[in-house]
Amino acid sequence: MNKLTGAQKRVLAYIVARRRATGMPPTVREIAAHFGYKSPNNARQHLRLIEQKGYIRRLSGKARGIEVLTAAEPVRRERWAEVPLVGRIAAGAPLEAIENRESTLRLDPDLFSADGVFALRVKGDSMKDAGILDGDLAIIRRQPSVEQGEIAAVIVDGEATLKRFSRAGNRVVLRAENPAYADMAFGADTQIEIVGRLIGVVRKC
Q1: Contact 144/111 with Cβ under 8 angstroms?
Q2: What percent of the chain has pLDDT over 90?
Q3: Separation CA 153–CA 91 (nearest Å)
Q4: CA-to-CA distance for 150 and 165, rounded, in angstroms?
Q5: Catalytic positions, please?
Q6: Residue from 152, 120, 108, 104 nearest 19 by CA
Q7: CATH number for position 137
Q8: What pTM was estimated for this model as a whole?
Q9: How far apart, in Å, are the Cα atoms of 70 and each of 58, 78, 97, 138, 141?
Q10: Given 47, 68, 89, which residue is the final one in a domain?
Q11: Does 174 reside within a domain?
Q12: Would 74 be classed as within a structural domain?
């Protein structure tokens, strides 16, 4: 079996850790976002080469179609990323922002660092087609802005929601990942604060 490059080892370790933490592998877009790639094609190229070297099998037609055949190295966990669970956020109609710290989560540092990261409990099903379900824990990296089309935790007039964020001129559009929910569009007169960018989801089994 051919050896992996350093970058390929990191991608494979992320896939293994993500499946161990959430019960499912990441999507190509999630891999690209985690490593800061400008395009999902960079992640696809790594996956193609990792597959050629015999470490994974990609399943066509599935967003999370990555099967790990063998890991590059055994993973030993001696430390954890501890992040605060600070409340809940709507994946549906916005609900009042809750800032109270509920508890601390111990997460795999191969998936998440603790710096500037916190968790919010998801309420609602408006993001279900992005793999974010009612009761999941949304892992958010605190930042004041996001790129077009990224999923963000946003406070609108004092209420928090989790949606795909975009701008169209002077308007902000928050888009659900469920056809049952209409887009939410806001003009310049609406107070909008980006709390942070979604970097992962943890599902409690």
Answers
A1: no
A2: 28
A3: 10
A4: 6
A5: 126, 163
A6: 108
A7: 2.10.109.10
A8: 0.62
A9: 13, 21, 43, 28, 30
A10: 68
A11: yes
A12: no
